[in-house]
Amino acid sequence: MTYLGKYRLDGKVALITGGSRGIGRATALGFAEAGADVAVASRKLPDLETVAGEIRKTGRRALPVASHLGRIGDIDDLVATVINEFGKIDILVNNAGTSPAMSPAEEVDERLWDSIMNLNLKGLFFLSGAVARAMKGHGGGSIVNVASMDGFKPEPQIGVYAISKAGVIMATRVMALEWARDNIRVNTLAPGNVHTRLGDSRFLAMPEYEGEMVRRTPLGRIADPDEMVGAMIYLASDASSFVTGECLTVDGGISLY
User: Which residues are catalytic?
Assistant: First the structure.
């Protein structure tokens, strides 16, 4: 295989959560262009069907699956549905995440805590375990967990989100250590500020904040979702065959300060 060929995903099956928009959608299309068949999951089927149509235009197979990843029963059903359709899962991208409200730490209530932790950390952990069991029967695979720069350096008013993403980084290390013997690699992508619905919601809530983030970012701008795809393909593909337990930060340099 050529060096560039190691970035190809031909013959691979990928499952991407939060696949209806933002980083998830961009990753799904990027994986399809690299040769993978792609299952996309989120709560709303119509949005997923739109993305599935875009994937099929690349010549690859697509499967949209409506699933609430904060519920264990939905996780088991999702994995079974994908395997029934494609026969295996080679790549899992745990991209689904939420932060439905901004709140000072002392005012966080249990409902907000649970809604964030159930999806961002609990769902990610149990979905990874279910997929890992399937991967063991097919020679291994690659899991990419999407964290955030907030997992290292929290921002005001979104403390629970930051805690959940710090947990994602540690969960990655735990999984990588335990599953390496089964040829399952587990890594984390930690984006900085990206123009997604979740990311832009903070800018709408605090109009001055976007300008502050741009000023603090050495590259001088907010990223587009497409700018995460190269790193995703690297971590999912054989190009990173000796990389596991790592966190790749793609933040325009903001963490340098």
Answer: 161
